[in-house]
Amino acid sequence: MNNIHLLDLIQGASGALDYVNSTVTGHHRRVGAGAAAIGGAMGLEGRDAADLVTAALLHDIGAFSLDLRLDGLDFEADHGDHARAGFRLLSVHPMLSRVAPLVLHHHTPWHRLPPLSDPGPGQADTPAAALLANIINLADRVDVLDQVGTRRVVRERIRQIISHNAGTVFAREAAEAFLDLSAGSEFWDKLSGDWTHVREAVDLPMADDLISHDQLLPFSRFFALIIDFRSRHTATHSLGVAETSARLAALAGMPPESQDRLRLAGNLHDIGKLAVPVTLLDKPGPLTQEEFEAVRLHAAASESILRSVPGLDDIADWASQHHERPDGSGYPHGLKRDALSLGSRIVGVCDVFTAITEDRPYRPGMTPDQSARVLRDMVGQGSLDADLVALLLDNHAEVAEARREAQARAHVEFERYRSLRVDGAAHAA
Fold first, then answer.
1. Of 22, 242, 389, 393, which one's alpha carbon is 20 to 30 angstroms from that of 370?
2. What is the Cα–Cα distance from 390 to 344, expressed in whole angstroms?
3. Closest CA to 7 of 86, 94, 96
4. Full-model pTM
């Protein structure tokens, strides 16, 4: 498997935030570009510059798992919930923990910033961390304000606001760098230009950093937890689909690398549900036709998000096609069996198997006999691959145990995350 560019993966995750709330479309890449430009003007380079861009692209990641609006023009408003949630999510990730303090404090005014002199293991050091967090705060406020009103008038007003708050809300050094950059049109043109990748707008210190296949799996697990945590009904679903897909792939004779990539696809198969309101995911009663169509959009959203990351084409197919059906009645493209790869058909079977056998808050999982009847009925209707269902049922105990173990681990993570959020809420910045 080819290595993946770390920046592509981070921007793919950042772009997924656009699906949580359409009012912030492009916001995170613009903040990333703005922060990178300001940091560059201040002479930041190396690890500090890379940390700045990473944290800026992911600064609202805590809102993935919270039902929050990602807006707010008031510098003094309390944005602590999603900042604390983001800090805790990033703190447990081996490659992202060092930028967790930057995300935690991306709404903290400069004069209220703690010294950040005792970062956790592997986290960004001070004094740079406080300054980096404040640069993100500045770039974030600039972009939010820049989306309102007539550009020429608003941009001059933005400069006045930043200047007025220099030394208090914003570090004077960062404010002065912004004021120098924003005096001409080039800075604003970069932020509003017709580009899709942040590297097209600014030079980045991390543009060529690669991550290996072994490092990609923790990334996918990380996002699986974020996706599942949005809904109390499916708090461990993605991890169950991932493990059963890998196990069924092994039983089908696929090589170990393909098994691992199916585990990645299972972890990410519902990433498009970031586009679905939590109220629909958690609705206790049946969905209306309009609501059902809104939920169906998640498959196409998964495809779009994953295809934005070069090197994930097969994973994008397998993940986004889990609702396609062999008879062509599925979505998003109505593909028939001969157009579906083995990997896509495996994830489709394992998504159904996991959904019907896992416990949900509103009902227990099906017994082996009950689930076997459902799977066979779906084969008879042309909705699932007959050979794969037969293989799964021949090895039901093994596949079911893999699902239970994976979801038990995910449940521990879910409870840990919930307790951290409650604890963090009691210690608001």
1. 242
2. 17
3. 96
4. 0.83
